[in-house]
């Protein structure tokens, strides 16, 4: 690497650091005055998709040692054929997942629980191989569950912040 490139990289790094740039990935610490994520205990969610959702939700709400709130999620799933070829065979399926969530304070006499509902739709192509179809369906369900968990976390955090919870 030439000196000119090295000086450019150093100058760019200092410029980005001075403007408040934070890397998207990696460790990020919050200062004492910063408001971190809600301290939420995530209830168990049945099935494989529930495990994926719970894992994503635990990452979203990580950071506090003692939980002040509990998040319960009810997951519903449906699938339907969305495309048929000229021979009458299904060629595409859609997976729809809906999550009803309830965020409740753990302290007795706390504020009224918050609740909501979010929905995600994922689709996949059907092929001649049963294994390929199984794999595509599993991947679509896991993608939907992960995205659904992100939406639940966003909705619960937004509603709790608007209600003045911390």
Topology:
Elements: H1 3-18, E1 40-42, H2 47-60, E2 69-84, E3 90-105, E4 114-125, H3 130-162
Parallel strand pairs: 1-2
Antiparallel strand pairs: 2-3, 3-4
Helix pairs in contact: 2-3
Explain this structure.
The chain is 38% helix and 28% strand. It is α+β, with helices and mostly antiparallel strands. The chain has a single domain (36-162), classed as Double Stranded RNA Binding Domain (2-Layer Sandwich), CATH 3.30.160.150. Strands 1-2-3-4 form a 4-stranded mixed sheet. Helix 2 (47-60) crosses helix 3 (130-162). The termini are far apart.
SS-based class: alpha+beta
Could you give a short account of the major beta sheet? Answer: 4 strands, mixed
Number of strands: 4
- Described by the principal axes of the CA atoms, the overall outline is flat
CATH topology: Double Stranded RNA Binding Domain
Separation of termini? 49 Å
Number of helical elements = 3
Strand proportion, as a percent range, falls in 25-35%
User: What is the fourth-level CATH superfamily?
Assistant: Lipoprotein like domain
CATH-derived architecture = 2-Layer Sandwich
Instruction: Provide the low-confidence segments as ranges.
Output: 28-35
The secondary-structure element order is HEHEEEH
Kindly give the count of domains. 1
